[in-house]
Amino acid sequence: MPHPPRRLNLGPLRPTAFRPPRGRKPVYLPSFTLTLIRTPHLPPTMASFLVPLSLNKLDLKDYLYNVYQIPVLSVRSFIQQQRVRQDKPSAKLPRPRRWYRPRSIKKMTVEMGKVEGLRGGGFVWPKEEADLEPWDKKAWDAAQSAQEAENDKFGADAAKLPPSDRKTMAEQAKALLEGKLIWRSSWRDYGRSREVETGININGG
Fold first, then answer.
1. What's the pLDDT at 7?
2. pTM over the 0.85 mark
3. What per-residue confidence (pLDDT) applies to 167?
4. Long-range contacts of 48-51, Cβ-Cβ distance < 8 Å, separation of 24 or more
């Protein structure tokens, strides 16, 4: 006859009995870069990062714990594919209809445990700066607009775009019709044309 299964007396279960393993590889100078993303829609106990494609969940968990002493309860990751663009961004002269897909980006969202020294057990982003003049925001916007306008000249639909001076020409035509401007021809009469090099024998005789 088969023997009945033996019962093991394990005693009461303790919630702290299991401790997740942590990485033991010593890394003193990390060769990767983590970018903390501003996420006001997430609670203070969660943070989102831009990470390299080769970084996994355990690497990020060990990094936050060993460097910042932040315990991580869970990690979620996903890879976002980039949109197809025309030519590479690093090209000196953009070439239209040369399609290029940038490298995908990887995002990770972690849920942090209780951290000593932080109010509410989490991290709260500071308020965004309203005045960006110390960072020369106007010059940056002007450079960005100029770059976009230059890229449009080499786009696939560049021939279909209206000329850049179309608005100016329309304003001048309206002013002429209203009598605010007087049209003057830019042609000048320099008199009768004459030959400068006279008396020169081109045959060498």
1. 62
2. no
3. 78
4. 48/107, 48/108, 48/109, 48/110, 49/107, 49/108, 49/109, 49/110, 50/105, 50/106, 50/107, 51/77, 51/106, 51/107, 51/108
